[in-house]
Amino acid sequence: MTGAPPVTVIGVDADGRPPLPWAARRLAEATLVVGAARHLAAVPVPPHAARHVLGDVGAGIAAVREHAGPAVVLASGDPGFFGIVRLLRERGLDVEVAPAVSSVAAAFASIGLSWDDADVVSAHGRELRRAVNACRALPKVAVLTAPGAGPAEIGAGLATASAGVSRRMVVAELLGTSEERVTECTPEQAATREWADPNVVLVLAAEVDAARGWSWPRRRVPYRWALPETSFEHRDGMISKAEVRALALAHLGPGVGDLVWDVGCGSGSVAVECARFGAAVIAADHDADQCARAGRNAAAHGVEIFVVRAAAPACLAALPDPDAVFVGGGGPETVAAAAGRGARSVVVALAALDRVAAARDALRAASYDVGGVAINAGRFADLPGGATRLAAVNPVFLVWGHR
């Protein structure tokens, strides 16, 4: 892309040896070597080469761009996996890569687990809460940590709003060194300890060995959604109808890294549908029977949700901030409380037209762009002789706000 010789990016193991013979030759020929202090100390940097200690990544890349001779960049493990290769290419540099074993592969190997069914998230320069949400929702997650987003912070996040979901953490510190330590603990235990850098965190459910798939990463979007009401246990028809769930899901947009609240969850059908997209979900209802029913529906669909038995809006103050909120039960005070937590989307389902104005006003007061629709569905029903009629479904008013 630049016409200059490609930059050689070398993954460094703990022993400091370049992983491939040709990489050792590139290192010996380099006139500039860029890397963290520990990497520069570990590898045989030639005496004629200038050294640039990598602190600010942008400054390091600028040094490479300005250098006229052969340059080498040192990185941990596999630099093409959540590593510096992407940044170098984004800055217009050609690269050749000599990868070592990635820290994620080494961490799973340390406990004898396969990881082709794992999800990997990075806390480097990203919101810690999204990594924690992925760990809440998914059964096997590796987290690439960062200063201020390490095992203690992940453990503290997981220890909040974890009712009904069990997670264990594996913290792999200083992998490949003489001081390597692999510790299994609870999130609560992780939150109270100090951990050595560098480290990788694995967050695991009780059952972690999924059936082998055919692709990686795995498909996260379910093959069907807006499932029929018969797919859920419910009480006396008290369930969001499939047509309502279809449109609600379109406006909620649940996905991996998101936290969705289902307020007034009832049977939990919306909560379960969001969890099937990989989102973490907190389902709240004041009715103990409905809370138990929501938990059973989640288990039947192979997902985990966090069920809170409490009345809204009072219970919402103690919950972690959501990315999207579905309000299936509660008055304008509940809508206002949910809207005040900064979610990108709030969706409200109402059975009575006279409640629509208050819901819209609450969303507008929180600076949302507000829309809505009346859903009047007619479902095909068979008649004698092969004829078809339309069977009316009770109308529902769906109000949404986006920001």
Write a concise keyword list for the protein shown above.
403 residues; alpha/beta; Cobalt-precorrin-4 Transmethylase, domain 1; Rossmann fold; 3 domains; 7-stranded mixed β-sheet; 13 helices; 25% strand
What does the main sheet amount to? 7 strands, mixed
The secondary-structure class comes to alpha/beta
Strand content: 15-25%
Number of helices: 13
End-to-end distance = 39 Å
Q: Averaging pLDDT over every residue, what do you get?
A: 93
Shape designation: elongated
Read across the widest sheet, the strand sequence of neighbours is: 13-12-11-14-15-19-16
Residue share in helices?
25-40%
Briefly characterize the structure.
This protein has 403 residues and is α/β, with parallel strands linked by helices.
Q: What is the secondary structure topology, with strand pairs?
A:
Elements: E1 7-12, H1 21-29, E2 32-35, H2 37-42, E3 50-53, H3 57-66, E4 71-76, H4 84-90, E5 95-98, H5 103-110, E6 119-122, H6 128-137, E7 140-144, H7 151-158, E8 168-173, E9 181-185, H8 187-191, E10 199-204, H9 242-252, E11 259-263, H10 269-276, E12 280-285, H11 288-300, E13 306-309, E14 324-327, H12 332-339, E15 345-350, H13 356-365, E16 369-375, E17 378-382, E18 388-392, E19 396-402
Parallel strand pairs: 1-4, 1-5, 2-3, 2-4, 6-7, 11-12, 11-14, 12-13, 14-15
Antiparallel strand pairs: 7-10, 8-9, 8-10, 15-19, 16-19, 17-18
Protein name: Precorrin-6y C5,15-methyltransferase subunit CbiE
Pathway: Cofactor biosynthesis; adenosylcobalamin biosynthesis
Domain Methyltransferase: 260-315
